[in-house]
Specification:
2 copies of one chain form a homodimer.
Chain A: E1 2-9, H1 16-27, E2 33-46, H2 51-66, E3 72-78
Antiparallel strand pairs in A: 1-2, 1-3
Chain lengths: 79, 79
Amino acid sequence: MKAIVNIYLKEGVLDPQGKAIHHALDAMNFQGVKDVRMGKQIILQLDSESKEAALAEVTKMAEDILANTVIEDYSIEIV
Amino acid sequence: MKAIVNIYLKEGVLDPQGKAIHHALDAMNFQGVKDVRMGKQIILQLDSESKEAALAEVTKMAEDILANTVIEDYSIEIV
């Protein structure tokens, strides 16, 4: 089973990587970009028995270690 | 219009960040994790007029600057 965890900075938290990309896109004449945010994507291969078990396990991983929940939000997709 | 660009290392390219996460999960007694890969997610806010225009623009961005296509693959989602 495959789990995709997307981790992104909470709204209002300064995102210097996103700002740098935005700046670079402007410098390369890409028009019409209003905002850029940069996040992480962690793809896990699991041998869980059910989607529910996988989701519970990955939620615990995200809370405990993958995301810094003070400044980051996360979303989990089991495929 | 919002574009999500997922960038991940090609199969076979060594992923030290993924390995480090895998190691940390093992050390924290998370069972049943077979593989971990780490990627980037870039979220762009665009004022494109159509999904097609946005996709074309973002594909050019990904090829030119966002992804290193020698070692990375990318996927684009327009929402």
